[in-house]
Amino acid sequence: MRHILLLLFAFLSHHTITTAQMVMPLGIAQDGGYPHIGCQKACCKAARQPTTKPTYVVALALADTTTHQWWLLEATPDIGEQLHLYQNLTHNKYSYLPNGILLTHAHIGHYAGLMYLGREALNSHHIPVYAMPRMADYLRNNGPWQQLTTLDNIHILPLQNNVPIQLSPSIAVTPIQVPHRDEYSETVGYRIQCGQKRILFIPDIDKWEKWSTALTSLLDSTDIAFLDATFYDASELPNRNIKEVPHPFVSETIQLLGEQSARLQKVHFIHYNHTNPLLYQPKVVEQLLQTGAHMALQGQWY
Fold it and tell me: Could you say which of 27, 30, 56, 281 has the lowest number of CB atoms within 10 Å?
């Protein structure tokens, strides 16, 4: 599997963006990254080989190919490498810094990268950061994030549930609130209109059945869906209570949507925990692809 991803990565690094390609995952791993800190198990050993390309924490780039603007969904701990990756894959046709950053929630993999915009690192100026009300309050009123706003490294712009914002003539995004462990902020996914493409991005949710919105109905009006694949099934954390970190298992999502269904064929799974066998077991990847679902690939245009 790692060999396959390396070949794909090498091909995609020379791939040219077209007007039909406006969305690119810049990371596919869960908050802790891959390989995971402290993990000496088989799942992370291959990822630590010197010849293995890095797998970054989940993030999505949105590109307007007409105005040459772009936006970043999520500010991950890997943000520095992801900005360079985007520059390389777009052959420096876009600005190094995005025209804005859109956050989903306050878990470390999704906003901790903001720290690198501060005075100790980039010392950026007035970067728009789009956030829901609780997320915005958390950034404004808690250190070290508060310093980013007082020094004008970032400029927080408000989001409201189910209220679309127009980022450019070709790109509109709508935050959609989802149930998750909301210790410091609410959690949202995004419905994205990129040109003619309708994209769904939900990297984190507790369980589909806890949500008042039916995933099946949402997929009927979606072309591509990047969905939470943190765990493949319940067997991955034998030494922890997996109920403490609820996510829809990949196996559950497949069962909900139905193998070979038109809905499942729109799904590109993303946000893999390091224990997820889709990262390191080719047979499991094969089984997934046979259902009609896909794996999101870092550095690929959609």
Answer: 281
Q: What are phi and psi of 225, to 5 degrees?
A: -125, 120
CB neighbours (10 Å) of residue 165? Answer: 16
Secondary-structure class of domain 2-295 per CATH: alpha beta
pLDDT at 21: 65
Does residue 15 register a pLDDT over 80? no
| Cα–Cα distance measured from residue 81 to residue 75, given in angstroms and rounded to the nearest whole number | 11
> pLDDT of 267-293, one tens digit each?
999 999 999 999 999 999 999 999 999
Tokens of 132: 């829901």
Q: 0.90 exceeded by the pTM?
A: yes
HEC states along the chain? CHHHHHHHHHHHCCCCCCCCCCEEEEECECCCCECCCCCCCHHHHHHHCCCCCCECECEEEEEECCCCEEEEECCCCCHHHHHHHHHHHCCCCCCCCCCCEECCCCCHHHHHHHHHHCCCCCCCCCEEEEECHHHHHHHHHCCCHHHHHHCCCEEEEECCCCCCEEEECCEEEEEEECCCCCCCCCCEEEEEEECCEEEEEECCCCCHHHCCCCHHHHHHCCCEEEEECCCCCCCCCCCCCHHHCCCCCHHHHHHHHCCCCCCHHHEEEECECCCCHHHCCHHHHHHHHHHCCEECCCCCCC
27 within 8 A of 113, measured Cβ to Cβ: no
Other CB atoms within 10 Å distance of the CB of residue 19: 12
Nearest to 246 by CA among 187, 189, 205: 205
Amino acid, single-letter form, for residue 123: N
Torsion angle of C-alpha atoms 302, 298, 129, 223, degrees rounded to 10: 30
